[in-house]
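Lecture 7 notes: from sequence to structure.
We start with the chain below.
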Amino acid sequence: MTERNAPRFVVMPEFRVKPQVRTAFLDAALDDARHSLADEAGCRRFDVVCPEGVEDTVLFYEVYDDRAAFDKHLQTPHLKRFQAAVKALEVKEIVVRFAALENA
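Predicted structure tokens for the same chain:
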């Protein structure tokens, strides 16, 4: 398998967010997403997703070159800011799913 066709590392966390802190949480999430894409060479995609009809749920869809790129993400200042916001806003991280994204 060539590097071009190597599977990417996908991270899909799910959060439960109280309505009164939703805007602040989304601001923090979008800050993390923007900086991940701008500042991390190994971050290929970072979507903040609000499913229809489920007002208390926010999902992320993150794609990295590989697990090592995600591990670098875990050490970034923007993620530390996001984690501090999650704690201050009392947002619950429900589940984190990891997967491989196979490229065509």
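Points to note: DSSP finds three helices and four strands in the chain. The first strand starts at residue 8 and ends at 16.
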